[in-house]
Design goal:
The chain is an all-alpha fold. The protein has a single domain, classed as Na+/H+ antiporter like fold, CATH 1.20.1530.20. The protein contains 14 helices and no strands. The protein is globular. The relative contact order is 0.18.
Length: about 325
């Protein structure tokens, strides 16, 4: 019970506080949600990825984490596609559904949650905490990269031809943050000591708050439907189907111990706020996407506690 309350008050409540502020601002003022989303896409996300990649040492043994993240997204995509066809979704709703299931909140929930779980574990050591934090940062970076590339392409398919969707992706500065980070690493200069670095750090730190406030503004424009069964299906796929697929994939890949525990716990977090922002940006079922984020975040306080317990049983520390 104490652990559940800790997750609720330290991870869930702060998220809803910022969403509520955005909701209130959206109701009181005529804020342009498209302007807010563009600030996120063109400033804060590229800064986050660039700073994260440049400052994170990624050992070769972490290649398995990249493989895990990509295969997990592929499995979620495939199953969501089948479900969308069986339920007769339109192209637009199917794209929004797939994005809501594939992309999860590995940043402002996943990273602090994994850090908390392993920092307070009886077997915790600095080496173990460093391992799981590095793995989670890699999950976070991969999720952001794919969200703002394939996620945008997928959402754009509802209203654009594939060529137009691809052009839309190529116009996003996020994908160019990766080669820029690699270029910075190759230079004989410590970029953290240059005048530009504080600006990048400030922009990186603003991402979470900006994304949550923008979601709140979007929700203030959305008519909430608590009886929308498609929302709950997407939530079930994210909170229950995601960990189940992750467990199967971890067994197939032969991963075990603390790394397997961390990846399983990470797979159980709610739908990414970014999926709702993409829906807003592309004009593709933004109401549905926003509701999935809200409902999955609220219910995740229960399901994440269950997955944390299950991870310790399924992948014991020998």
């Amino acid at each position: 019970m104490q652990f559940f309350l800790h997750i609720l008050f330290n991870n869930i409540v702060p998220i809803f506080a910022l969403i509520a502020v955005g909701y209130g601002l959206g109701r009181k003022f005529d804020l342009d949600v498209f302007t807010l989303s563009k600030l996120t896409f063109y400033v804060f996300v590229p800064s986050f990825i660039l700073v994260s990649l440049y400052t994170t040492e990624i050992p070769w043994e972490m290649l398995s984490v990249i493989v895990f993240v990509l295969f997990l997204m592929a499995l979620n995509f495939a199953i969501s596609t089948v479900l969308g066809r069986l339920r007769g979704y339109s192209t637009g709703l199917s794209s929004a559904f797939k994005n809501s299931v594939m992309f999860y909140n590995s940043g402002n929930i996943g990273l602090p949650l994994v850090t908390l779980v392993f920092a307070t574990a009886p077997f915790a050591t600095p080496e173990i905490v460093s391992l799981v934090v590095t793995a989670q940062i890699l999950v976070l970076v991969m999720q952001n990269i794919t969200t703002y590339s394939f996620g945008i392409y997928n959402a754009g398919r509802a209203t654009l031809r594939w060529q137009q969707s691809l052009i839309k992706v190529l116009k996003m500065p996020t994908i160019y943050a990766i080669p820029v980070a690699l270029l910075f690493q190759s230079l004989p200069v410590d970029m953290t000591q240059t005048p530009i670095w504080p600006a990048l750090e400030h922009a990186r730190g603003a991402l979470i708050a900006m994304a949550l406030l923008t979601l709140g503004v979007q929700l203030s424009r959305t008519k909430l439907r608590v009886t929308n069964g498609e929302v709950y299906l997407a939530v079930a796929m994210r909170l229950l189907g995601g960990p189940l697929l992750a467990w199967i994939l971890l067994l197939v890949m032969g991963l075990e111990g603390v790394l397997a525990q961390a990846l399983l716990i990470s797979s159980a977090v709610p739908t990414s706020v970014n999926s709702a922002l993409i829906a807003v940006e592309m004009g593709n079922h933004s109401g549905f996407a926003s509701q999935v984020v809200m409902v999955s975040t609220l219910l995740s306080a229960l399901t994440m506690t269950l997955v944390i317990f299950s991870a310790q049983v399924l992948f014991p520390i020998l």
